Automatic annotation (TrEMBL):
Pfam annotation, one family: PspC
Protein keywords: Membrane, Transmembrane, Transmembrane helix
Origin organism lineage: Bacteria, Bacillati, Actinomycetota, Actinomycetes, Mycobacteriales
Domain Phage shock protein PspC N-terminal as annotated: residue spans: 19-65
Record keyword Transmembrane helix present: yes
Keyword set includes Transmembrane: yes
Residues spanning the membrane: 37-62, 89-120, 211-232
Protein's name in the database: PspC domain protein
Domain Cell wall-active antibiotics response LiaF-like C-terminal: 241-312
Coiled coil ranges: none
Length: 343
C-alpha cells in the first residue's frame, strides 16, 4: 500500500531535525511539506480533549527513524534492530496506559475520545497523502530495482543536507556507487532513487465515501466537544464561562467543594466562621487563574495539587496556635496561576 510504504520518517534532534520530543511532527512536516507548528498545535488540541498523547505515541511507534528501515512497532516482529525493538515495547506499554483501555475497559474504549483522536489522526494522514502522494527525494529508505518505475516528485524539494543518518545505518542501504542520474556523486542522500521515469498520472475518480467518513468524524468530534461543554456547565458551580467568586460565611459539615470554570476563580474563606470538627473544603480550578484567600484566625491544614501554571501553594499546617477546630483545605489547580493569600 503506497500510503504505508511512503509514510513519514521521524527526524529527531540528534539527526539534525528540529523536533522537541521524537521528531514526529518534524518528520510528517518534511514528508508532506507543511509547517510543523500546525501539527504540534493539532496534537496539543487533541491532548486537551483527550487522546492526543495516545495518538502521538501511535505515530511514534509507526514511523521509523530517518535512514532506519523499520519502525519501532515493526521491530517487535523482526530481528536485527535491538534499539528499535526496546523502544517499541516501551511505546506499546505507554500507549496502553494513555489510551485508557486498562481503566475504562474495551467496551468503553470504543466510545472514548482516544479512539476519536486516533480516527481523526488517520483521516488527517489520508488527506495529507492525497495532497502529497510522492515523498521528497532521498527522504525514505526504499529498495527500488534498476527496472522499477517510480514517480519522481516535481514539487520544490526540502533541504535534507543537514540531516544525518542514524548511527549504524548507512544510507542508502547497499549502495556504493553513484546512480546514472548523479555520476559525480554530489547527492548521496538521494541515491536510493532510480533513474527518472515518466510520471504516470492516474485519472482521478470521484469517490463519495471518503467525504462521508470525514464528515462523520467532524460530526462526532463536534458532538463530543459540545457534550463536554454542556456537562461542564451542569457540573461546575458558578457557570462554565466567566469569572467565579465565592465568599461563604458558613458551610455545611463534612466535605464541601468549590469549582471554577473558564475564567478567573476567587474563593474567599476569610469570613468563614463556626468551623466544625472534620470540616473539609476542596477547591478546584479549571481554566484561568485561581485565587484562594484563607483565614488567619483558625487552624488550617493545606494540601495542594499543582496544575499548569505558577503556584505558591505549599502544603502544611498553618495558624497552629489559633483557636477553633481544624479546617482541612485541598487545592486542585487547573490551567493557570494559583495564588494563596492569608488574612
Amino acid at each position: 500500500m503506497q500510503m504505508w510504504e511512503t509514510r513519514p520518517a521521524r527526524i529527531p534532534k540528534e539527526q539534525g531535525g528540529q523536533g522537541h520530543i521524537a521528531g514526529v511532527c518534524e518528520g510528517i512536516a518534511v514528508r508532506y511539506q507543511i509547517d510543523p507548528l500546525i501539527l504540534r498545535i493539532v496534537f496539543v488540541v487533541l491532548a486537551f480533549f483527550g487522546g492526543g498523547i495516545a495518538a502521538y505515541l501511535a505515530a511514534w511507534a509507526l514511523m521509523p527513524r530517518y535512514s532506519v528501515p523499520v519502525s519501532p512497532i515493526q521491530a517487535l516482529f523482526k530481528s536485527g534492530y535491538p534499539k528499535e525493538r526496546e523502544q517499541g515495547w516501551w511505546l506499546l506499554i505507554f500507549f496502553i496506559l494513555f489510551s485508557g483501555v486498562l481503566g475504562a475497559g474495551i467496551g468503553e474504549f470504543f466510545g472514548s475520545t482516544t479512539l476519536l483522536a486516533l480516527l481523526l489522526s488517520g483521516l488527517g494522514w489520508w488527506a495529507l497523502h492525497k495532497k502529497e502522494p510522492v515523498p521528497p527525494a532521498g527522504l525514505l529508505v526504499t529498495h527500488h530495482s534498476e527496472t522499477q518505475e517510480a514517480p519522481m516528485n516535481t514539487t520544490p524539494q526540502p533541504d535534507l543536507s543537514g540531516i544525518t543518518p542514524a548511527e549504524g545505518y548507512p544510507y542508502p542501504p547497499g549502495r556504493s556507487t553513484p546512480p546514472a542520474w548523479d555520476p559525480l556523486g554530489t547527492a548521496p542522500f538521494a541515491w536510493d532513487l532510480p533513474d527518472p521515469a515518466p510520471v504516470v498520472v492516474e485519472k482521478k475518480r470521484s469517490r463519495l465515501w471518503p467525504w462521508m467518513i470525514l464528515g462523520f468524524g467532524a460530526l462526532v468530534s463536534t458532538t463530543v466537544v459540545i457534550g463536554g461543554v454542556i456537562t461542564f456547565s451542569e457540573g461546575y458551580d458558578g457557570g462554565a464561562v466567566g469569572d467565579t467568586h465565592h465568599s461563604p460565611s458558613s458551610i455545611e459539615s463534612g466535605n464541601h467543594q468549590f469549582s471554577g470554570g473558564i475564567g478567573d476563580t476567587t474563593i474567599d474563606l476569610r469570613n468563614l466562621n463556626d468551623v466544625q470538627e472534620g470540616q473539609e473544603i476542596t477547591i478546584e480550578g479549571f481554566i484561568g487563574d485561581l485565587d484562594v484567600r484563607l483565614p488567619d484566625n483558625i487552624p488550617v491544614q493545606l494540601s495542594c495539587e499543582n496544575g499548569l501554571g505558577d503556584s505558591n501553594c505549599t502544603p502544611g499546617l498553618y495558624n497552629e496556635d489559633a483557636e477553633g477546630e481544624l479546617l482541612l483545605v485541598h487545592v486542585e489547580a487547573g490551567i493557570g496561576d494559583t495564588d494563596i493569600d492569608w488574612g
